[in-house]
Amino acid sequence: MKALAPGTVIFHRHRGYGVITTVNLLTGWISARFGSESRTLDLNLSTDEVQFADGEAILFRRAPPDRMPHARLMAVVRELHKAGYQKLYLYSWPKPSGLHWRWHLFTGPRDWMQRSWREGWYGSGADYNSNPVMGWGDLPGASTEELIHALAKFDPQGLAQALGRDEDHAAWFAAVCDALLPGYMYSLDMQRSDGGPLIDMPPVPVIPVRASLPPYSGPDIPWPPGWAGLWSKVHVMPTPRINLTGLPEVPEQAD
User: Fold this and answer.
1) Residue 107 in contact with residue 116, Cβ under 8 Å?
2) Average pLDDT over residues 128-138
3) By Cβ atoms counted within 10 A, which residue in 42, 102, 241, 247 is the most buried?
4) This protein's superkingdom (predicted)?
């Protein structure tokens, strides 16, 4: 099936030709304009018999897709580890609302708290709901191999930085994938209860990637290599005091 995105020209038997304005592939609903710039019509891809402009039917599977991309990303990282790109890491953590989880792929030194950022290597499940792509030129529903090829084409220099050996992390990641895929993902969320202190080395939180799946009941997932001791450190930079003088401050010298 062709890619479905805002701007796609469609045909509806009662409305004629129109243009899609928004797409939610998690629910199967789209909004489209038909001859009016100010009014949009909501259509369901499962029941409203929407077609592409050339007459090809748009068939939406009734089984809902993954509500978050993390399991697909885990499969990508596992295959790249097998190919020798072991300095590739997947960090996932919840948004403050707790409704969606962010994800971040990074390469090079294994520094979970001071990781480097490259455009297209991070995203959120909230964005994925309406546009189920990772952001590096991939198509909705792309296979693991297709995602890897798209990433290599999008940022070959960034991917080259992942080439190298990190055997303890690769072994941890492979074991986690064997335990969780295809229905669950991990979240590196250092939880604390009611604003209390961090609990030293609690089990890694595990979340289902589809609403129809039951809560995870498998064995506890250990934390990745390099996380020991992070619970006792401060991870938020202190807010600097406001400088109203306009002059740079000189650091105080220790006695």
Assistant:
1) yes
2) 86
3) 102
4) Bacteria
